[in-house]
Design brief:
The structure holds 2 protein chains of 2 kinds.
Chain A (H helix, E strand, L loop, with lengths): L1 H21 L7 H4 L5 E2 L7 E2 L8 E3 L1 H7 L4 H8 L3 E6 L3 E6 L2 E2 L3 E5 L2 E2 L18 E8 L3 H4 L6 E7 L6 E10 L3 E11 L3 E11 L3 E2 L13 E2 L2 E13 L4 E14 L7 E15 L4 E18 L4 E23 L7 E18 L6 E16 L4 E12 L4 E15 L2 E12 L3 H5 L1 E4 L3 E4 L7 E14 L2 E13 L2 E3 L13 E6 L3 E13 L4 E12 L20 E14 L2 E12 L2 E6 L9 E6 L2 E12 L3 E8 L20 E9 H9 L1
Parallel strand pairs in A: 7-10, 27-31
Antiparallel strand pairs in A: 1-2, 3-9, 4-5, 5-6, 7-8, 9-10, 11-12, 11-40, 12-13, 13-16, 14-15, 16-17, 17-18, 18-19, 19-20, 20-21, 21-22, 22-23, 23-24, 24-25, 25-28, 26-27, 28-29, 29-32, 30-31, 32-33, 33-34, 34-35, 35-38, 36-37, 38-39, 39-40
Chain B lengths: L1 H18 L20 E5 L5 E5 L8 E4 L13 E8 L4 E12 L11 E4 L2 E4 L3 E4 L21 E2 L1 E3 L14 E5 L1 E3 L1 H4 L2 E4 L6 E4 L4 E4 L5 E10 L5 E9 L3
Antiparallel strand pairs in B: 1-17, 2-3, 2-6, 4-5, 4-11, 6-7, 8-9, 8-15, 10-12, 13-14, 15-16, 16-17
The chains are: A mainly beta, B mainly beta.
Chain lengths: ~675, ~240
Amino acid sequence: MNRRFYTTLLVMLHVLAVNAQVNVQSVDSLDKELDLHEVVVTGTRTPKFLKDTPIQTRVITSRDIQRTDATNVMDLLTQELPGVEFSYAMNQQTHLNFAGFGGQGVLFLVDGERLAGETMDDVDFSRLTMAGVERIEIVKGAASALYGSNATGGVINIITKKMHSPWTLNVGGRYGKHNQQRYDASWGVSRKRWSNMLTANYNSLDNYDVKSDANPATRVISTIYGDKTLNLKEQMTWKASERLSLSGRLGYFFRETCRTPEMPERYRDFSGGVRSLWHISDKDVLEANYAFDQYDKSDFQRLVGLDIRDYSNVQNTLRTLYHHTFEHGDPSIGLRTSVLTIGADYMHDYLFNSNLAATKYHQGNFDVFAQYDWQISDRLEVVGALRYDWFSDTHDSHLTPKLNARYKILHNLALRAGYGMGFRAPTLKEKYYNFDMSGIWIVEGNPQLKPEVSHNFNVSAEYTRGHYNLTASAYYNLVTNKIATSLPYFQSPTDRLPYLPYSNLDRYNVYGAELGAQARWSSGISARLTYAFTREELPTNKDGQQTNNQYIPARPHSLNASINYDHAFTSHYGISIGLSGRVLSSVKSTEYRNYYDISQGTVTINYPAYTIWKLSLVQTICDAFRLTLALDNLFNYRPRYYYLNAPITDGAWFQVGLCMDIDKIGKSCRK
Amino acid sequence: MIRCIKNLLCLVVPLLLAGCEGILDGLYDEPQPIVAREGQIVVDASDWGTWHYIDFNRPDSIQSHPIPTILTGETDGKSGQYLYWFDVWGEGIRKNEFREFTPCDAQCDPEEWAIAVHRNNVRTNGGEVLETSFSSMDELPETSEPFHNMRFTPDEWSENEVWDSQEQMLLCLIPSQGINVNKVLSSWLTMDIPPMPPAFTRNPHVFILRLKDGTYAALQLANYVSPSGVKCYLTINYKYPY
């Protein structure tokens, strides 16, 4: 495996070097080519060019999404970002590790809105399909000063497509191993004052068995559970005037996972919202919106035809956001602009769970925040923000600051540095859970939990020259009062089952660094190499006792690489060939020797390294048809042991897909 | 402008009022108690430590007796708890090894009973069982006579199937009661690990039970899940005498 990997790396570096010589003279719109002119909103909640934002932001563009042919956000992030790993927890619930933070420490947003529902601390990632997605913005590090609870490790904001053309109609399908099927359709219409976008997506994958060698060191998986998902989204925008627009959206999601044939698990989500955007003047913008999200879980008892719900999380959010732009400086040499943002949110959170002490709980969360984005000079920009959150359930409140700065040493070299506090309020589940986990232990909520707080320090540098863009970043997180399950204990000598209580653990550190290089040449070749180092320390409890890792920790080293060649042979035919892969180092995890007698201490389990590569060929015909052939897991890697963090693959996986832009069929082929 | 704001409020207010505890409740069913129909027995056999005894002459009075976990008198050398290691997290429970025997009292049975159920295990009171290929009680022949000359299977000794405690499952150690069970009738509900939690599979076939008094009964497991989702909550179709 190593030899193959190093050979591939050498080939890629050779191609980089050769193209550097060939293209050294060519000058083009480099920032645009390297996506630096992408407009991003997540870091400051105001639109800014990627190259100008004081908060380091990684953007995955629609071009990247198309190139990776990703089905959902898990698929995409693992192909695009190092330091991101989706593994399993317990009964194959998907668990995210994002630069040392678990799912509860990373805030997933869709167009800036939170998602309801969780399973084993993670949102339902299969909801986040890539159909109708314009781009994804990723901000690493604490961002609670803008987004509140849960943004301790970062924010991942999925921005959906907006209609600009008079009409579009796109349909597509993909087929792969284990009866993997994907069908997408989107229909958009735009008129003078209104536009509408309807997207539909259906995915299915059969269950399949995988076989590990004898004597695994810890738990292995023997069946990979597929599922069926349906995702429908409707978005309508009405431009009431040049200054005022109103938009509304509706969404429906359904997933069925069949672990037991006669009792499949069902997951549904209903979402909706309205948003108004009012440009009061050239310098004043007022946003107001309402968002609704309901995530349900049920078991369908096929034998008797009953669909019994056992979980529902409903979030109603009202938000208002006001921006005022200040202009200052000398008009003769160009004005500088600074932006004041003031906002307030109210979220009503409702949780029904048959495993809660009282089955139903309500909580209100109110917050106010202010941010000032101060462009001090052409070179220096500073953003500071402060937020106050209040939670009605236990009357907790929290004040969260952040401060970020960007300094352009040269026109093509920018330094960024920042401090951000992150906090995560204990969820209703963590406070009131009372769950007999299959007779193994009782997971016990703790109403006395304090918020988890993280202090994030980060620095980064970005250098762009010619066809190249280099980035380097480092971060340090000091986490206090981490909320997690702690040491199992027996409440009384007669207890048959141990209790696994939620508690605040002691302080611990998460730190890491990332190096990235990308290049794009006019010959049609582009390449990207990103390496991430992550160090996640194991927290102890308040008495200094070693605890079990609740989830498998982050792999210390990970690397993602891709090289692509795009070429249009004629105006009717073009190809894109891509090779992409990731390399993940081994990781050690501390686990109890005996869960019923923790005095026996812990053992260290070594989860092995692996690498997975994908080769894809996309043929574009008449600009309207895209035929994709892909071979995932190119080197036919099969884990020796299917541990919970092993790649979910049973060997090379061929996929074929066809996508049609029906609105372009007539136009492009006539050219 | 005011009109626009009014329109916005018209959209928002109904959504807010409707949505605090969610919408579309009608999609789901409310758990209702299972009411046994004629020719049906409902028994909650989900408890790990209890056998439930069914007498087809008195189907409404199901008796329950705990699985003994201590020895109060002399050991018979056979009855007791058999601790096995199962490869729960690895290859599965078909791979297992004996670890320890703890003698306990023999199972205390009532005077009159035909079958006893414990989770996915079934015993007979000296009976024998035949699995048919019929999947509906209505498809059965009028009488049991066509089955009389077929091969019926009596109960047989088991020491690693009647799991009676999960308390050391994380260590893959599961104690079982050493006792006779009917493996043919027990196949109406099989439990398999992996996956974890276990996967249950119902066998829809009708089984013919020959009781020790020579009478016959037809049995079928109609359902094994309670309205609230508890597994091993059995709904049994029966025809007796058959």
